[in-house]
Design a protein that fits this description.
By secondary structure, the protein is α+β, with helices and mostly antiparallel strands. It contains 6 helices and 6 strands. It has a 6-stranded mixed β-sheet. A hairpin with a 3-residue loop joins strand 4 and strand 5 (139-144). The longest helix has 17 residues, at 99-115.
Length: 171
């Protein structure tokens, strides 16, 4: 009998060790036994599933703003970008009170976006949680700690078209 270790290309022992009757039984198990099993089955026409519709970006933006408000984010800013930028239709900027709060806000928003049907939700900056970016395709969410938000001042870039939608920071 040939060893499996001597010939690495062989994965089974030689069939010569089997009796002729055992080899016939093994071959019979592999071959179809009835004529019905040998005939190809006609493929049934399958119904074409409708293409999944992506959620409306403005509805997603409102959903994100609502989630941020529910989780007590501060200085929530909803900036409509449709017609102004090809990168997205809406950008939301918000602040959390601490790195832990920013991390929790980002986690909740990402879950809510996925539940709403956003197909690809990517998150950047979660380990440090100073500035977390959530990219859901047509909706981009920036969540900052207050001092980091003040330093980068994204609101300045997008000008007066940005609208504050909810709770202001408590001083």
């Amino acid at each position: 009998m040939e060893s499996l270790f001597k010939n690495p290309q062989r994965t089974t022992p030689l069939t010569a060790t089997r009796s002729p009757q055992t080899a016939k039984k093994a071959a019979a198990k592999k071959a179809p036994t009835s004529k019905a099993a040998a005939k190809p089955v006609a493929a049934k026409p399958s119904e074409v599933a409708p293409a999944p519709t992506s959620p409306d970006p403005l509805e997603l933006a409102l959903l994100v703003v609502q989630q941020l408000d529910d989780d007590k984010a501060e200085n929530i800013l909803n900036i409509p970008l449709s017609g102004k930028s090809p990168m997205a239709d809406a950008m939301i900027v918000a602040s959390g009170r601490s790195a832990r709060h920013v991390s929790a806000l980002a986690d909740h928003v990402a879950r809510k976006l996925k539940e709403a049907g956003a197909s690809q939700v990517r998150i950047e900056g979660l380990p440090n949680a100073d500035w977390v970016l959530i990219d859901a395709g047509d909706v981009i969410v920036h969540i900052f700690r207050p001092e980091v938000r003040e330093f980068y001042n994204l609101e300045r870039i997008w000008g007066p078209e940005a609208t504050h939608t909810t709770r202001a920071a408590a001083n």
